[in-house]
Amino acid sequence: MIRYCESWCCLPNRTDLQMSRFILPFLALLIGLVSPGIGQAQERCGVVPYQQMLQEKNPLTETNESFELWMEKQLRTRGAQLMQTNKVNSTYTIPVVVHVIHNGEAVGTGTNISDAQIQSQIDVLNKDYNRLNTDAGNTPAEFLPVAGSISIQFVLARQDPEGLATSGITRTKGTQTSWAITDNAALKSLDYWPAENYLNIWVTSLSGGFIGFAQLPVTNLIGGLDVTNNNRLTDGVVIHYQAFGTGSGFNLLSSYNLGRTATHEVGHFLGLRHI
């Protein structure tokens, strides 16, 4: 988790993950602009109840309103700085680790989804965020003037936190058969890589009718207090295993089989709010 948004561009050794988590709001202000049809995932997105849960646990948790006030300031100042340094035209690579939290099935069965299903999701993310998706032509006319590539590349991590070669996929048998949003910390503690260097995505069986949720980034508007949603150990995205990836041969929900749930939730991870 990148601790405070406003300091990202000042870090001497910033990673592409840090920069991309700052730069995205300048390039796509509405989560619906990332790809046509993405609004479908919003219907069962758990980010709002997740943020409400954090707010109840800690009233100092940043609100959407305070974040938007901060973003308005950044649009006036940081945007100009990025243009001057040509950072807007840079491509940022985000290393992804997918933690499959399964129920003991063989690989490729049930909650223990296959490597191919995971790779199909990475492919969707790269197409959607660079506007290479085949249904880009369905973009509503009013959004066309601002639709475009966000110049972010997602790759499965090739090196683990210890510096060893990896596929970017971990597999862990869970301690329960399904997980609610309130199980957030317990789920993520089963397997986690430092959020300063990786986008953690947990794929499992989600309960409560949700198919995904993400932890939003925060600003330093509230004076540097260690608020609940600033917890690096829970930073990342959670996706229901039947809404992760696309293609035939996978056990996907018919209404969520295009990989857009992850596109939607990663948008939240990068700072986009629901319209």
What are the defining features of this structure?
275 residues, alpha/beta, 7 helices, globular, Collagenase (Catalytic Domain), six-stranded mixed β-sheet
Quaternary status:
single chain
- Name of the CATH homologous superfamily: Collagenase (Catalytic Domain)
Q: In angstroms, what is the radius of gyration?
A: 18 Å
Count of strand segments: 6
Which parts are unreliable, with pLDDT below 50 for 5 consecutive residues or more?
1-14, 25-39, 222-229
Please tell me the CATH architecture by its name.
3-Layer(aba) Sandwich
- Write the H/E string, N to C: HHHHEHEEHEEEH
On the 0 to 100 scale, the average pLDDT is 82
State which percent range the strand residues make up. 5-15%
Quickly give the structural class: alpha/beta
Largest sheet: 6 strands, mixed
Taking the alpha carbons of the first and last residues, their distance comes to 24 Å
Total domains? 1
Describe the structure.
The protein has 275 residues and is of the alpha/beta class. The protein has a single domain (5-269), classed as Collagenase (Catalytic Domain) (3-Layer(aba) Sandwich). Helices cover 29% and strands 12% of the residues. It is built from 7 helices and 6 strands. Strands 1, 2, 3, 4, 5 and 6 form a 6-stranded mixed beta sheet that branches. The protein is globular, with a radius of gyration of 18 Å. The relative contact order is 0.24. Residues 1-14, 25-39 and 222-229 have low confidence and may be disordered.
SSE inventory with pairings:
Layout: H1 16-27, H2 39-42, H3 47-57, H4 64-84, E1 92-102, H5 115-129, E2 152-156, E3 169-173, H6 184-189, E4 199-204, E5 212-214, E6 237-240, H7 260-269
